[in-house]
């Protein structure tokens, strides 16, 4: 099994890579920093891992990653779109998109789109925050609405859910999941996350957050579905919105 994991340098992605490697997957670790990725690779117990760098704030870098993967692998069993970020200030990438929209949705959209003919399965790390998002395909970078980092994060995680449904509609075996509140580097500068981390027992270790990813990567699930703790759960579904997001995303990557 060839399994590509983005955001594999830390947290949930690193924990998932460790477990999948132990299960015999040949993992491809994707992240921004070679040193961090090699440190994860050195701790794996399974087949030799590959390390590829990519910064999702550059769409050209994502195109290069897709080409590198196409050059190496005829088939990819699993693409785990796991990299994600919460940015308190509103930042705009060199491509002109709000940073969270690009890193959390547009970059994985482009990567998946560039590899669809080689992929057997896509698993995306979303969040329960996606259920309360108010995604607007006409304002994906939140230029016209009030800036609030958690609201924008929720929109991007709703995009993960809707993208999963749109992929399934197109015959791609795609699922997504909420990992739980997990003790990682994620959102560590926000009051909400600091609160969760301070209350004993609330934040779980990365291995717990990786469990559903590992399960969906190893044994699939129902295409288009959202999972929590290994079980199908109620995620945001809206076929019309999913199609409008798809069209807006295609246009944003110049497709
Ligand atoms: N932790 C939670 O409680 C929680 C809850 C719900 C959902 N999630 C989701 O879980 C996923 C994994 O997050 P985590 O909790 O494991 O956080 P983390 O420890 O901060 O890991 C985030 C990963 O994303 C990568 N990443 C960040 N910005 C990137 C960029 N510009 N280009 C490429 N890669 C980038 C990081 O790579 P670098 O090493 O290069 O920074 C890192 O490998 C995210 O999608 C997050 O939204 C987390």
Ligand list: NADP nicotinamide-adenine-dinucleotide phosphate
Instruction: Supply the CATH superfamily name.
Output: NAD(P)-binding Rossmann-like Domain
Q: Give the strand tally.
A: 8
Distance between the termini: 30 Å
Low-confidence sequence ranges: none
Q: Classify the beta-strand content into a percent band.
A: 5-15%
Reconstruct the topology from this structure:
Layout: E1 2-6, H1 11-22, E2 26-31, H2 34-42, E3 50-53, H3 59-72, E4 78-81, H4 99-115, E5 122-125, H5 149-169, E6 174-178, H6 191-198, H7 206-219, E7 226-228, E8 231-233, H8 239-252
Parallel strand pairs: 1-2, 1-4, 2-3, 4-5, 5-6, 6-7
Antiparallel strand pairs: 7-8
Bound molecules: NADP nicotinamide-adenine-dinucleotide phosphate.
NADP nicotinamide-adenine-dinucleotide phosphate (NAP) binds next to helix 1.
């Amino acid at each position: 099994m060839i399994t590509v994991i983005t955001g594999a340098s830390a947290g949930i992605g690193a924990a998932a890579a460790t477990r999948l490697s132990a299960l015999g997957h040949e993992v491809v670790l994707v992240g921004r920093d070679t040193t961090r990725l090699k440190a994860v690779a050195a701790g794996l117990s399974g087949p030799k891992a590959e390390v590829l760098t990519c910064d999702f704030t550059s769409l050209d870098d994502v195109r290069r990653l897709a080409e590198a993967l196409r050059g190496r692998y005829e088939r990819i069993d699993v693409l785990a779109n796991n990299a994600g970020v919460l940015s308190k200030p509103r930042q705009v990438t060199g491509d002109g998109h709000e940073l969270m929209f690009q890193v959390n949705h547009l970059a994985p959209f482009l990567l998946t789109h560039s590899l669809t003919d080689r992929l057997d399965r896509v698993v995306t790390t979303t969040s329960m925050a996606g259920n309360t998002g108010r995604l607007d395909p006409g304002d994906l970078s939140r230029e016209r609405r009030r800036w609030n980092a958690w609201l924008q994060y929720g929109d991007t995680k709703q995009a993960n859910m809707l993208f999963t449904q749109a992929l399934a509609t197109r015959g791609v075996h795609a699922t997504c999941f909420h990992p739980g509140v997990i003790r990682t580097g994620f959102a560590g500068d926000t009051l909400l996350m600091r609160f969760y981390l301070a209350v004993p027992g609330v934040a779980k270790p990365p291995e717990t957050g990786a469990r559903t990813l590992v399960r969906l990567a190893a044994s699939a699930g129902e295409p288009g579905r959202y999972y929590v703790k290994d079980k199908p759960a109620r995620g945001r579904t809206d076929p019309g919105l999913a199609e409008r997001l798809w069209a807006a995303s295609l246009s944003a990557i110049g497709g």
